[in-house]
Amino acid sequence: MSKDNIGLNLEYEVLRNDFTKAGEASSNIKKILTQLGINSSIIRRIAIATYEAEMNIAIHSLGGCITVNVTPKEINIVALDNGPGIEDIELAMQEGYSTAPNSVRELGFGAGMGLSNMKRCSDKFKITSQKGKNTRVNMIIYI
Amino acid sequence: MKLSNIVTELDLEIVAGYNLENENNEPQGVYICDLLSLVMGKAKEHDIWITIQTHVNIVAVASLVDITAIIVSEGIEIDEDTKAKASEVNIPIFRSNLSSYDLATKLNSLGV
């Protein structure tokens, strides 16, 4: 299979607070995209976007999943969690703003850069959330 | 300069993931940071990353952004699962008793 005739759907479950496993989905996605022969600078953006999504789900949510749809034209990534939702999305998007607890900050997480890194790496970025509901991040990166 | 020369010149302790496949890699720069998202966003491909973080996720970060090697400064103890992961995915981890600043100045004087 090459990138000219791909139609691939990948799905990864991300567990709450599982920092040892977190990173595996993005590593796996990177490996598959490399095998497909996709440009390395695009793979790097996808790797960053999916890693940040993975960490956000692990740190801030009750768990969720990441799906990656690969087509010849674009990579469509959806990160969907099971809540508890974001009260103020605008504030959450601000670089440096973080609600991560100290226990994970000590491990180097919680820089408040996750969502902005995701947005920067995407050609299209959309986040929808509401307090008490789930959060959905959709990122599209053109190949 | 080759990674193997850097290991010798800086007297780095080899912790994990260093092998015949990567000893000839030539790092192109250095990035120092302990916040993983900043490293994800700002470190460049083929950088050496100097950090005091030793949690297993440093290997995922280094691997995702194609870091050539991780140097843990200040002689900090490194988690066993971090070592295992580094060996698994071929990311060299070294350790030094020097500070991040001292390591960086030495790397700079070596032309990295």
If you had to describe this structure to a student in words, what would you say it looks like?
The complex is a heterodimer of chains A (143) and B (112). Chain A is α+β, with helices and mostly antiparallel strands and 143 residues long. Helix content of chain A is 35%, strand content 24%. Chain A has helices at 24-35, 40-60, 89-93, 102-105, 114-121, and strands at 8-14, 64-70, 74-81, 124-128, 136-142. A five-stranded antiparallel sheet of chain A has the order 1-2-3-5-4, covered by helices on one side. In chain A, α1 (24-35) runs antiparallel to α2 (40-60) and α2 (40-60) packs antiparallel against α5. Chain B has 112 residues and is of the alpha/beta class. Chain B contains five helices and five strands; from the N terminus they run αββαβαβαβα. The longest helix of chain B is centred in the last third of the chain and has 10 residues, at 80-89. Chain B is globular and about 30 Å long. Chain B starts with a helix and ends with a helix. Chain A binds chain B through residues 19-20, 22-24, 26-27, 30, 40, 44, 47-48, 51-52, 55, 107-109, 111-114, 117, 120, and chain B through 34-38, 40-41, 45, 51, 53, 55-61, 63-66, 81, 89.
CATH class of chain A equals: Alpha Beta
The domain count of chain B comes to 1
Principal-axes geometry of chain A comes out as globular
Mean model confidence by pLDDT of chain B: 97
Oligomerization category of the chains in this entry: heterodimer
**How do the strands line up in the largest sheet of chain A?**
1-2-3-5-4
- Taking the alpha carbons of the first and last residues of chain A, their distance comes to 16 Å
Question: What gyration radius of chain A follows from the Cα positions, in whole Å?
Answer: 15 Å
Q: Kindly name the structural category of chain A.
A: alpha+beta
